[in-house]
Amino acid sequence: MLKNVDNSLYRAIKMHIEGTLPYGKAEALGVAEGGVGLAKNDVYDAATPAEAKAKIEQAEKDLLAGKIVVETAFK
Fold first, then answer.
1. What is the pLDDT of residue 28?
2. Strands 36-37 and 2-3
3. Which sign, positive or negative, has the C-alpha torsion 43, 58, 66, 75?
4. pLDDT digits (tens, 9 = 90+) for 11-69
């Protein structure tokens, strides 16, 4: 898994410049916002069967389409 801190920081700086950064509020950045993701690299390609990759791709599409909702304790 990837925790894309670089994307989160870039987003925060951009929002600050635009005057839209919600100071004092916690945000959860997920796959759709680029905050987290799957490390699709040589190791992933070599160790993950094609059938599993297809299921992962479909799960990502469903997540982005709102068909899958990830529960969180942090709201």
1. 84
2. antiparallel
3. negative
4. 999 999 999 999 998 888 888 888 999 999 999 999 999 999 999 999 999 999 999 98
Q: Residue 14 is which amino acid?
A: K
Report CA-CA distances (Å) from 49 to 1, 53, 62, 71: 17, 6, 20, 27
Given CA atoms 19, 74, 57, 40 in this order, what sign does their dihedral have? positive
Can you tell me the distance from the alpha carbon of 25 to that of 16, in angstroms, rounded to the nearest whole number? 13
- Tell me the whole-structure pTM to 2 decimals: 0.70
CB-based burial label for 70 (10 Å; 0-12, 13-18, 19+) = exposed
Instruction: Report how far Cα 24 is from the mean position of its chain's Cα atoms.
Output: 22
Tell me which DSSP letter residue 4 carries: -
